[in-house]
Amino acid sequence: MMETVKQIQESLAKRETKPSEWVAKALQQIDAHDGQIGAFLTVDREQALAAAKRLDETETEQVERSGPQPLFGIPYALKDNICTEGLRTTAASRILENYIPPYSATVLHRLEGAGGVLVGKTNMDEFAMGSSTETSAFQVTHNPHRVGHVPGGSSGGSAAAVAANMVPFALGSDTGGSIRQPAAFCGVVGVKPTYGRVSRYGLIAFASSLDQIGPFTQTVEDAAIVLNAICGFDPLDSTSTQRKAERFDEDLAAGVRGLRVGVLRHAVDGGVDAGVAAAFQKAMEVLKDAGAELVEMDLPHLDYAVATYYLLAPAEASSNLARYDGVRYGRRVEAATLLDMYEKSRSEGFGREVKRRIMIGTYALSSGYYDAYYLRAQKMRTLIRQDFTEAFATCDVIASPTVPTPAFAIGEKVDNPLQMYLNDIFTIPANLAGLPSISVPCGAVDGLPVGLQLVGQAFAEKTLLRVAYAYEQMRGFERSLGSEEVGQ
Amino acid sequence: MNYETVIGLEVHVELKTKTKIFCGCRNASGAEPNTHVCPVCLGHPGTLPVLNEEAVDLALRAALALHCHINQDNKFDRKNYFYPDLPKGYQISQYDRPIGEHGYVTIEVGGVEKRIGITRLHLEEDAGKSTHSIDGTHTLVDYNRTGVPLVEIVSEPDIRSPEEARLYLEALRSILLYCRVSDCKMEEGSLRCDANISLRPLGSETFGNKAELKNMNSFRNVERGLEHEVVRQTAVLSSGGTVVQETRRFDEATQTTLSMRSKEEAHDYRYFADPDLVRVHIDDVWMESARAQIPELPQAKMARYRRDYELSAYDAGVLTAEVEVARYFEELIAGGVPAKTASNWVMGDLLAYLNSTHRTMDQSPVSPAQLAALIGEIESNRISLKQGREVFRLMAESGKSAAAIIEERGMVQLSDESALGSILDEVLANNPKSVEDYLGGKEKALAALVGQTMKATKGQANPGIVNKLLLEKLAGKKG
């Protein structure tokens, strides 16, 4: 088992180990298991080892100069839609197959500044469009708990890399559940911060008003530590919040006594797998025993969330993906005319799901349809936001299963996009409302992990983490409870 | 049947900010292609726009100067279309809430003031510049211009003739130059103009089919293009035909307009609010500080010149057409030069010199202080006006002061009556024919005698005194 971020921090602080040992361990784990899992698209072996070696040598000097770096010497992975200068960044799309960014995302600078060591870029659904990592143009990623099952998506590679002990943490991006859903499927912790908490500069946009970068970790405490490093105002992202950075790991152990946990009425509906519902109800009992007050609550417009999302996100995507035209970078298919060049480059460069969403989004924004689709979806988004505002008058966090089902088999839902989209029913609302949300492992069904999702008020990540931490401490098992785990 | 011409203009003006509208690249024209570019303005994956407030400030100033109603809550929208010079596949613009609306520009047509309405003024980013190879095999794109801030100013269809269109453009340009929001150089593309023109039977309230006119690179060409359209559309309508609604290109070589596309492409730009940018609120303090940046505008200045300096409408018009000219004129006055004298010098020798050397007023080699000193030399009779004009030319060419040139050339004016008297006696003795003619009643002969005197003194004689002495001496001969 890979040590947690916290454990590695302590070991390094006591000078028991050196950064290069941890990076070597991560690379060994990748070598041993990634052939089977397929979590990584790019492993930056030489750079990672060189960076670790530099840290080995400068450790003392560094600590004396500016105090300990919070992620000093800790290996990590990035989802392949986060730009890394000089290192191929593909968004798992043919159209960016050989794209080497001329700049790095703000989160990369933050993690580098905190002393972290990037070991590689992880697989994902193409342009983050998918819930299974199956739409990647390059490879399939398997669930470490059961090869042959999906790891979830779109950040499936990052979730699988942490679950298979290849790295102690990884970053993903969450537009409609793309961190929380794979975290639930892979039995790890995943956090989608409040919209604006983490700079999106350098995150290849899917749906700009919904996208948010967040961490995958083994524990809630680790998630708090990583959030400390990546959150904060960025002048390069106009939508990033100017609020002062917080110490997210400060009040983790404050307990849940006096906190009200809203239990979403739909949480154990007919649409939810019986095993998932049982695991969720058990989790609610754990929180109750820990001192939380359970409150029944409802989001009246929840039934419209998926439809709303699948109009707004594709609408923004249809515009965000227009830049992939073969003119300046990325795949270009030469043709006799400009129009042919555009059509061939984009036809060959984009996969089916991406094309489907570009078409839906283009349609939703077209004159004559705009009012009926895009505008109406915007109005529904406002109503869903209001649902949350009203809900938070009666509770502090809202609980539900992260996903209605455990991980499904690879290929099972590929040809049924609607069923695939409905998988996101519990995760989407937090994106539409811009709220922070976390998924914590809460049991398993037939050896496949199940996640407990909590949604908090805007910028109340600390409350969210506190509840998740209290649950994690009292749930009665160490980690994900999955079986047949690859990477142990 | 008589037709009425209906014209509306769409003007794009580049704002003179230090950096581009959504990134830190320099906003400067004339650089090597693709040198003022970065991942943001090249539209690299993952990059985000951050609004340059200076662009909002200049657009706000322009909108206020054009009497627009200001929308204090501003948002930006994406206008989606594909073109190689548009790196993101969309242009960030303002769609349904332009920063300014319902403004106007006043022009004077045949001595009568007329208001041309401004429908809207909005802020947006410029695209790159495409250069197509002659054989049509490739296109080169320069992205230096990508992300340069623009305002688009759309007029109401209030313009009734090509001449009014030119007058509107001149007035608009002048206001924007006064406000220092743009260079407004049409030849360099910092001001661009498209025109919509249609005809309708005189008295009709409905609009006819319009042609959209493009590719005019000067105000004169806008006027000519529109003139050609009036003739063309009149011919079409008079012969019972229908004007095709289309885009036409002005062809400078033939001075005519040519159809660009036979079939009008339907554009659906799929506008929606850009989620990467936040709303910008212009508060009252910002409004006031923008208003304070607007100087006295050309029309107010012109009225003041006519009133306070008793200048003609024409002179006041020339002096206020460009802010630098007005500034120069006002500095001369501040330097003690009488208004009429200042006006004569600016509109005469100075502008003539600048025009002949293809320079603008801000490139004048003679500063207002230097010119005021020269005028002082003339007013105090140290040199003649004729000498003064020669000195001005030498000042412009050498950059030296008037005093230095006068000194160097020994150009002191001869005003001493006794010295001049003996020279005059000589001139009279050597030109008996002229003297005879004058005495015989031919008054023009006097000029010949003055000319001979100036020649004899190498132009240094004070012409006033020469005149006076000559008349005295000739009167003596008469008697």
Describe the secondary-structure layout.
The complex is a heterodimer of chains A (488) and B (479).
Chain A lengths: L4 H9 L5 H19 L2 E4 L1 H22 L8 E5 L26 H8 L3 E6 L33 H8 L5 E6 L5 H7 L2 E4 L19 E6 L2 H11 L29 E5 L9 H16 L3 E5 L7 H16 L17 H12 L2 H14 L5 H21 L5 E5 L15 H6 L5 H6 L3 E9 L2 E9 L4 H14 L14
Parallel strand pairs in A: 2-3, 2-4, 7-8, 7-9
Antiparallel strand pairs in A: 1-3, 4-6, 5-6, 5-10, 9-11, 10-11
Helix pairs in contact in A: 2-3, 5-6, 7-15, 9-11, 9-12
Chain B lengths: L2 E12 L38 H13 L3 E2 L2 E2 L2 E4 L9 E4 L6 E10 L2 E14 L3 E4 L6 E4 L6 E7 L6 H17 L12 E11 L9 E6 L2 H20 L7 E6 L4 E4 L12 E2 L6 E2 L2 H9 L5 H11 L4 H9 L1 H12 L4 H18 L11 H12 L5 H14 L3 H8 L7 H14 L1 H8 L5 H12 L6 H16 L1
Helix pairs in contact in B: 1-4, 2-3, 5-6, 6-7, 7-8, 7-9, 9-10, 12-14, 12-15, 13-14, 14-15
Précis, in short:
The complex is a heterodimer of chains A (488) and B (479). With 488 residues, chain A is an alpha/beta fold.
For this entry, give a set of tags:
heterodimer, A: 488 residues, alpha/beta, Amidase signature (AS) enzymes, eleven-stranded mixed beta sheet, 15 helices, B: 479 residues, alpha+beta, Arc Repressor Mutant, subunit A, 3 domains, nine-stranded mixed beta sheet, three-stranded antiparallel beta sheet, 20% strand, elongated
How does this structure look, described?
The complex is a heterodimer of chains A (488) and B (479). In chain A, 61% of the residues are buried. The mean pLDDT of chain A is 94. Chain A is globular, with a radius of gyration of 21 Å. Chain A has helices at residues 5-13, 19-37, 45-66, 106-113, 156-163, 180-186, 220-230, 274-289, 305-320, 338-349, 352-365, 371-391, 417-422, 428-433, 461-474; strands spanning 40-43, 75-79, 117-122, 169-174, 189-192, 212-217, 260-264, 293-297, 397-401, 437-445, 448-456. Chain A has a single domain (1-488), classed as Amidase signature (AS) domain (Amidase signature (AS) enzymes), CATH 3.90.1300. Chain A has an eleven-stranded mixed beta sheet, sandwiched between helices. Chain A has 488 residues and is α/β, with parallel strands linked by helices. Chain B is built from 15 helices and 16 strands. Chain B folds into three domains: 3-285, no CATH class; 295-409, no CATH class; 417-478, Arc Repressor Mutant, subunit A (Orthogonal Bundle), CATH 1.10.10. The N and C termini of chain B lie far apart (75 Å). Helix content of chain B is 40%, strand content 20%. Chain B has helices at residues 53-65, 162-178, 219-238, 284-292, 298-308, 313-321, 323-334, 339-356, 368-379, 385-398, 402-409, 417-430, 432-439, 445-456, 463-478, and strands at 3-14, 69-70, 73-74, 77-80, 90-93, 100-109, 112-125, 129-132, 139-142, 149-155, 191-201, 211-216, 246-251, 256-259, 272-273, 280-281. Chain B has 479 residues and is an alpha+beta fold. Chain B has a nine-stranded mixed beta sheet with strand order 2-6-7-10-1-11-12-13-14. A three-stranded antiparallel beta sheet of chain B has the order 5-4-15, with no helix packed on it. The chains are: A alpha/beta (488), B alpha+beta (479). Chains A and B meet through helix 9 of A and loops of B.
